[in-house]
TrEMBL record, chain A:
Gene Ontology cellular component annotations, sorted alphabetically: cytoplasm; nucleus
SUPFAM superfamilies to which the protein is assigned, alphabetical: ARM repeat (SSF48371)
Subcellular location: Nucleus
Organism: Starmerella bacillaris
Protein name as catalogued: Uncharacterized protein
Pfam entry (one): TPR_TNPO3_IPO13_3rd
UniProtKB/TrEMBL annotation, chain B:
UniProt xrefs under InterPro entries: Ub_conjugating_enzyme, UBC, UBQ-conjugating_AS, UBQ-conjugating_enzyme/RWD
Transmembrane segments: none
Protein name as catalogued: SUMO-conjugating enzyme UBC9
Family according to the record: Belongs to the ubiquitin-conjugating enzyme family.
PANTHER family: UBIQUITIN-CONJUGATING ENZYME E2 (PTHR24067)
Keyword Nucleus: yes
SMART domains in the cross-refs: UBCc
Length: 920, 157
């Protein structure tokens, strides 16, 4: 051997020393690997294995494996086998570390799998190794078989069965004789069962016996779980009975079960097995029911989720399998058992909250499912909990006595059941009566006394969940009180998000019933607007806007709108408050110190609020022509309306110079709110909007041009679509051309501009609108769209594809120049330039081109593919291939199979024809 | 084919109940008659803690076809959801949900949910699906982060 052994030991030392620098480490590793692979590798392995250092021994064993994997410099077969067996013997006799022996075992297994005639190998191994290591040998055999047999599942199974038939019989014998008496034996048993279940099935009773032995119970449960799950139908009845006997020994729940590993493992197995088969092990249901009522907190109970998972599945099976009547006897107590466990508790830490909330959510799923069995009784119980807690507090006349967590718990569950009632509120339904009693109660008056924000948050959510209730005759009397409560909640930073959401929802749905409350809402809003988080501010404005929209008298309406807009415009930023902030940070303490420290943010808040107001002021119903005329007449003559509108125009114009995309976006949103409306303070004239777009398009940056282009699209589409617009006059020819010109000027933002133009085309096509000057303008735009169809930017490509499809689908005639350019661009993409994932955009255009303009397309197709190849790649394809391609695509006339033909050609052009399998 | 898909979906439901990550939810929706429709699920994906997406729970509608699990389900966030790999329609562009890419019939609902959660904070710039978020993500991270944080507020529970 030429390699100096001392050098090898030195290298091993380097790679084992953590403080060595990376470069030294990598160098040593490289040198060592090189020796391992060299023609001296086998000898090196033996030398290292015989050294006294166990790290060197390990590298030696590893070298055997490297050599066996490489199979380039191996000594003769008999020497290899002899060396390996001798090494194995040394490992056992000299008491080598298990990680070294394991590596040698792995090498022996590798060699056995590689040689066809080493039949006595398993016997030799069994004579040398103790049971656990022998099991590892068999485990390696199956792992190597799986790795070597890279074929589909069924064949894999057969392949492995063939390869391992001899070791399999031997393994069965030793497992049988030794009663699976070690963890490795259990592990290898499961592995072989997955391929030889029928052969190994007789050993199942031995495995089941292990469930009684503390040192094996964890491994045995996981093994039984896997085998039951995979082969349930193949389990003999007698074994299932044995399993039931095992289970029946676990009827008592130990007091400290959360620390009892064996109990947890067996119950985990029971849950899994029962979920596989709901009828087989019903004797375990009492145990599972009692575990539902465990005294441990959810977060401390490892069985909490599995047990609830079982009951959830059980209810679903009971309902779908028609076992409702027998199920109900278990379900009702289980619902009650969980009750105290899903209640918030003061020691619940923030880190545990996620787990607790997740459990609660699963519990409410359980309730929702169980409702089908238990019915309205569930609502009655939850209502009782709330009312009883309040009643108790009233009796003792002490708000501190209120069990807020029980109330919260009941409300949380009721919220989750709100979908069950849905919009179907009928006075005679008991569920409805229950909800009515909740909203009739003093709860909403005493809630402000509660100090826990989660309780308040759940209550606020309850209002949002049962919003339909307030639209009913029975709910209406409580609407104002409830809303006032919600507005009060806005003062609390931690409740703003939920409260503003519920306010918006309630105001939108019950607008007609709330118009008398507007002064109160405005006064509260004026008081708190500076302290609202921007999203909550906009939601609150939106809520108030909905109610203002319902005011019937136009004079009053315009006064209130003006007041709202001016209030928005006197907003200051006092503090943006983190919604997850603690309860103590209520608004009265939220320091005024913050002041108006960010002019841009303030600007944005105001603009968002204005957009929210404009949107909520839109009429939800269709408006008759007469009413539209009356509205126009009012808004064009009322002085206050005119001056308020002018103020808005001023605000919009003042933003014209801004380069801030968010500001421009918000301004465009404000303008958009008025576009579908016949009249109102947010309705800007067409000329104003077009001028705004024109002026802004001259100075805007790519960032700010997108909202401008979107505004143009919205204007055009709304105006062209008679159904959407309530205005009697749409855009005229000139206005449209001005807009198209603007878009053409912004063609740098190709994708966005093309999207707008596509919408214009689509709307015109759909509405059958013929605009002569539009045709000319569009052809001009096609000049931009065609090169874009060859872009590598997916957005541009997608927009160009959509635009061109719309263009091609309706034009009867297209100029020859356009046809030629378009075909050249498409063929360039098809001949390999398009990326695989974007090819579909090209194909879409191509198909329409062929189907709608076959004559013109054929001319250029033949020219660029056959007569005068467009590029070198096309020219390098065989003439027959090209001719076939042309005939096929022409024959298919743009039908769906064109995609496959094009893909095949694309692959050929990319030089990867072998990867293509024609789809039959 | 439909029996296969139905059986698999029942197994998925069971598997989810046996073991699902905290903060997520996944349940089949009800049809018009109030029966469970196993082909349409609602998933709740929480933003990963410690990322700009945290505190929000994002609702994903998962629609399975009769060809499932041979074909992947279609996953949709709400319309207009702000993320570079979410189409304006809300459809999520993720390789494990694409039949032509990394979809395998063995992929579970849990893996889909975790995959979407990972995608939220680790967008794939090579597969953009919407212009605005992609543009911000590439060109202006500050605006991107702000927009995401604003969106999170809308999905706080």
């Amino acid at each position: 051997m030429n390699t100096d052994v001392n050098v090898l030991f030195e290298l091993i030392k380097i790679i084992q020393t953590p403080q060595n620098n990376q470069e030294t480490f990598r160098n040593a590793q490289r040198q060592l690997q090189s020796v391992q692979k060299s023609n001296e590798g086998w000898e090196v392995a033996k030398v290292l294995l015989s050294s006294p250092d166990n790290q060197a021994q390990f590298i030696g064993a590893q070298t055997f494996l490297v050599q066996l994997n490489e199979r380039k410099n191996l000594p003769p077969l008999n020497v290899v086998q002899q060396d390996l067996i001798q090494s194995l013997q040394s490992c056992v006799q000299l008491g080598y570390s298990s990680f070294v022996t394991r590596k040698v075992v792995s090498a022996v297994a590798k060699q056995f799998m590689s040689s066809a005639d080493w039949n006595d190998c398993p016997h030799l191994v069994l004579n040398i190794l103790p049971l656990n290591l022998a099991c590892e040998f068999f485990q390696f055999l199956i792992e190597y078989s799986e790795l070597d047999t890279k074929i589909p599942n069924e064949t894999l199974k057969n392949g492995i069965k063939q390869k391992l038939s001899v070791p399999c019989a031997l393994l069965y014998k030793i497992l049988d004789e030794t009663d699976l008496k070690c963890k490795e034996a259990i592990e290898v048993y499961v592995s072989y069962c997955n391929y030889f279940f029928e052969e190994f099935k007789p050993l199942l009773p031995k495995l089941l016996n292990h469930l009684f032995i503390p040192e094996f119970v964890v491994d045995a449960t996981s093994a039984v779980k896997e085998l039951y799950q995979n082969f349930r139908r193949l389990w003999p009845v007698s074994y299932k009975k044995q399993l039931a006997v095992v289970f029946s020994n676990v009827q008592q729940v130990p007091a400290d079960y959360v620390d009892d590993e064996a109990f947890l493992a067996v119950v985990g197995l029971i849950v899994d097995v029962c979920m596989e088969d709901f009828t087989e092990f019903t004797n375990m249901y009492p145990l599972l029911a009692s575990l539902a009522g465990s005294p441990y907190h959810i977060v401390d109970d490892p069985l909490a989720f599995p047990i609830l998972g079982f009951w959830n599945q059980y209810v679903e099976e009971a309902i779908s399998g028609g076992m409702e009547s027998s199920a109900i006897e278990f379900i009702k107590p289980v619902i009650s058992s969980y009750w105290p466990r899903v209640k918030l508790y003061s020691e619940l830490s923030n880190s545990d909250l996620n787990e607790f909330t997740g459990f609660r959510r699963d519990y409410t799923d359980f309730l929702e499912l169980s409702y089908q069995l238990v019915g309205s009784e569930m609502f009655e119980h939850l209502t009782y909990v709330v009312l009883n807690s309040i009643e108790h507090a009233n009796k003792v006349n002490n708000p501190d006595e209120i069990d807020w967590f029980s109330i919260e718990n009941a409300l949380y569950c009721l919220n989750s059941l709100s979908d069950i009632i849905g919009e179907d509120y009928k006075g005679d339904r008991p569920e409805f009566e229950s909800i009515q009693r909740i909203f009739q109660s003093d709860l909403w008056l005493i809630l402000p006394q509660c100090k826990n924000f989660r309780v308040k948050q759940t209550a606020v959510n309850a209002i949002g969940c049962f919003v339909d209730f307030f639209q009913t005759k029975e709910g209406q009397p409580f609407l104002a009180t409830t809303l006032n409560y919600l507005f009060t909640c806005l003062e609390s930073p931690s409740l703003q998000i939920s409260a503003s959401k519920s306010i918006q929802k309630l105001c939108r749905n019950c607008r007609d019933l709330l118009t008398n409350e507007i002064p109160v809402f405005l006064s509260v809003y004026e008081r708190i607007r500076n302290y609202l988080e921007p999203l909550c501010n906009a939601r609150t404005v939106s809520g108030i806007g909905y109610v203002i929209q319902a005011v019937p008298d136009l004079e009053s309406k315009i006064q209130i709108i003006t007041l709202l807009i001016r209030t928005i415009f006197t907003t200051e930023i006092i503090e943006f408050v983190d919604p997850s902030a603690s309860e103590s940070q209520n608004f009265t303490q939220a320091g005024i110190s913050a002041g108006v420290n960010d002019q841009r943010e303030l600007e944005l808040v105001k603009l968002h609020c204005l957009a929210a107001a404009g949107k909520s002021l839109q009429d939800p119903d269709s408006i008759s022509f007469e009413k539209a005329q009356a509205l126009k007449s009012f808004y064009s003559s009322n002085e206050l309306a005119i001056s308020t509108h002018n103020e808005l125009e001023g605000i919009v114009y003042s933003c014209l110079q801004s380069d801030d995309p968010e500001i421009i976006d918000s301004v465009c949103e404000i303008i958009k709110t008025g576009i579908p409306e016949p009249a109102g303070v947010f309705v800007f004239s067409k000329s104003f909007i077009i001028e705004f777009i024109r002026q802004k398009s001259l100075i805007c940056t790519p960032d700010t041009s997108i909202p401008i282009l979107e505004l143009a699209k919205f204007l055009v589409c709304t105006q062209l679509s008679g159904q959407k617009s309530r205005q009697t006059t749409g855009l005229d020819d000139t206005e449209l051309c001005i807009l198209i010109g603007i878009l053409y000027n912004r063609r740098g933002e190709t994708s966005a501009a093309l999207d707008v133009l596509t919408e214009i085309q689509r709307t015109c096509n759909y509405r059958g609108i013929q605009i002569t000057s539009l045709q000319g303008a569009l052809e001009m735009i096609v000049g931009v769209a065609i090169p874009s169809a060859g872009s590598s930017d997916r957005f541009i490509l997608r927009s160009a594809s959509t635009f061109l499809k719309e263009f091609l689908s309706v034009r009867v005639e297209i100029s020859p120049v356009i046809c030629e350019n378009l075909m050249a661009t498409l063929l360039n993409q098809i001949s390999g330039n398009a990326s695989r994932s974007d090819l579909t955009y090209t194909v879409d255009i191509f198909k329409l081109f062929i189907s709608c303009h076959q004559l013109q397309a054929t001319v250029w197709l033949k020219k660029y593919l056959i007569d005068d190849p467009l590029n070198e790649v096309i020219g390098s394809q065989e003439l027959k291939t090209r001719t076939d391609f042309v005939s096929q695509v022409l024959l298919l006339k743009g039908s769906s199979r064109t995609q496959q033909i094009i893909l095949k050609f694309w692959l050929l052009c990319r030089g990867i024809p072998e990867t293509y399998e024609p789809i039959k | 084919m439909s029996n296969l898909s139905l059986n698999r979906l029942q197994e998925e439901r069971k598997a989810w109940r046996k073991n699902h990550p905290f903060g997520f939810y996944a349940k089949p929706q009800k049809d018009k008659e109030g029966n469970l429709d196993l082909y349409t699920w609602k998933l709740g994906i929480p933003g990963k803690a410690g990322t700009i997406w945290e505190n929000g729970v994002y609702p994903v509608t998962v629609v399975f076809s009769k060809e499932y699990p041979v074909k992947p389900p279609k996953c949709q966030l709400p319309n207009g959801f702000y993320h570079p790999n979410v189409y304006p329609s809300g459809t999520i562009c993720l390789s494990i949900l694409n039949e032509g890419e990394d979809w395998r019939p063995g992929i579970s609902v849990k893996e889909i949910a975790l995959g979407i959660q990972a995608l939220l904070d680790e967008p794939n710039p090579l597969s953009p699906a919407q212009r605005e978020a992609y543009h911000h993500f590439i060109e202006n991270k500050a605006v991107y982060n702000k927009k995401v944080k604003d969106q999170v507020k809308r999905y706080m529970e």
